[in-house]
Amino acid sequence: MSVSIQFLPDGVTVEAEVGEPLLVVADRAGVTIPTGCLMGSCHACEVELTGREDPICACITAVPPGQEALVINLYVDPTW
């Protein structure tokens, strides 16, 4: 199943498959998500999903099932 993913603030939209790693989707869209440990410990890759209160670590997250579209808000942590 294909999911439409929009990356904010630039509004870049790309199609992705359920289970596809978010970092792979972002790379294909030409969007850079900073990374550090690639294990979810350092939180350098945190992004916000619209409709979700807590940020997620993109390095350990895949496109979830059950949604037709996702909006991912990228933000820059000034400590990185």
Could you describe the 3D structure shown?
- There is one protein chain.
- By secondary structure, this protein is mostly beta strands.
- The protein has one domain: Ubiquitin-like (UB roll), CATH 3.10.20.30.
- The chain has one helix at about 20-30; strands at about 1-10, 10-15, 45-50, 55, 70-75.
- Strands 2-1-5-3-4 form a five-stranded mixed beta sheet, covered by helices on one side.
Task: Give the SSE map.
Blueprint: E1 2-8, E2 12-17, H1 22-28, E3 46-49, E4 56-57, E5 69-73
Parallel strand pairs: 1-5
Antiparallel strand pairs: 1-2, 3-4, 3-5
Q: What is the strand content? A: 25-35%
* Share of residues in helices: under 10%
Query: Which structural class best describes the helix and strand composition?
Result: mainly beta
Order of helices and strands: EEHEEE
- The best one-word shape is globular
Q: Quickly name the level 1 CATH class.
A: Alpha Beta
**Radius of gyration computed on alpha carbons:** 12 Å
Largest sheet: 5 strands, mixed
Write out key terms for the chains shown.
80 residues; mainly beta; Ubiquitin-like (UB roll); 5-stranded mixed sheet; 1 helix; 9% helix; globular
Question: In summary, what is this structure?
Answer:
Helix content is 9%, strand content 30%.
